[in-house]
Amino acid sequence: MKRRNLLSTVAAAALAAAPLGAMAQTAYPTKPITVIVPFAAGGPTDALARVLTARMGEALGQTMIVENVGGAGGTIGVNKAAKATPDGYTILFAHMGTLAVNIALYKSLPYDSQKDFEPIGLGGTNPMVLVTKKGLPAKDFKEFEAYVKANQKKAQYGMAGIGAASHLGGLMLNSMMKVDVLEIPYKGTGPALNDLVSGQFDYMVDQAVNVLPQIKAGTIKALGVSTLKRLPQLPDVPTIDESGIKGYEVTIWNGFFVAKGTPKDAIDKLNKALVTALGDEKVRARLIDQAVDLPEPKDATPEALRAQLKASIDKWVPTIKAAGVQPQ
Asked: Each residue of 119-168: pLDDT tens digit?
């Protein structure tokens, strides 16, 4: 009798545990999710992360908390995300510079972009704009190119630090124009843009979201955009490609990632929330106004982001090495 009672008790416990286990597998998320942005607050990647995660959190039924972990070209924040517990409660939102370009800019990285992360999905792409100080004697790109080539010993371009979007945009432009111009690094876009407005250096290539307000205010000049099509926000500004530097195209994609080993169920739910955010009309209107190019649902898959990362590594690593940039 006792044996039968014991077996009955064990069987009942197993039956009771089965639905609880199933519930545990489908309960994600049960607590707030930390989103690491490997840059200071206020920049374009941070701003995009906050808009998207606010809507994603609503879809998931949990708060998504943005944590800014800047420093060392974004590598500190990326490494923190790579070493996080792979449970879906710490995710990374970073752009191609930290995950692709830094491979060529640093002698060694504490993480492997392709092996240490699982992609969630693309969050948006930022086009860039060639802007100059207001007093630069060039009315269009052709005159700008001629001026820089004739004044290489004194011309200067600014950028927001090694690996920053403005570093990549200027590096590619100078390389394709075949000019050797003094590089002025800053600790962030804000200080660089302030000095461009005050005429401390000649030009920079930075993300549209950063420079649009100053362009509209007339404090700097826009002479070209980095995409192969003109921007709706700057319809009168030609592309650098159509202005004569054929093949020039630099855009900055941003994506969500989690540490390797994160359960597929969590990745699927995070991707579904991202697609929901990208399809929200209020979100789209807000980001399109900032010139962010938002992906269609078919392009916001983990597989698409994985391919995007590989393509960026294949493009930028040899480009940077060919430009003679010495890794730090």
From this structure: 999 999 999 999 999 999 999 999 999 999 999 999 999 998 877 889 99
CA–CA distance, 269 with 56 (Å, rounded to integer): 10
257 and 308 share one domain: yes
DSSP-assigned beta bridge partners for residue 128? 207
Total domains in the fold of the chain = 2
Residue 132 shares a structural domain with residue 221: yes
Whether residues 289 and 301 share a domain: the answer is yes
In this predicted model, what pLDDT tens digit does every residue of 251-262 receive, in sequence order? Answer: 999 999 999 999
DSSP helix/strand/coil, 234: coil
Range of the domain at 118: 33-125+252-322
Q: What is the pLDDT of residues 21-30, one digit of tens each?
A: 444 445 999 9
Residues with Cβ < 8 Å from 41, sequence gap 6 or more? 66, 68
Identity (one letter) of the amino acid at 124?
G
Together in a domain, 37 and 116 = yes
Q: Which candidate, 126, 163, 130, places its Cα nearest to that of 47?
A: 126
**Closest-CA residue to 293 (of 251, 257, 325):** 251
Look up the pTM and report it. Answer: 0.85
Of the candidates 297, 263, 260, which has an alpha carbon nearest to the alpha carbon of residue 92? 260
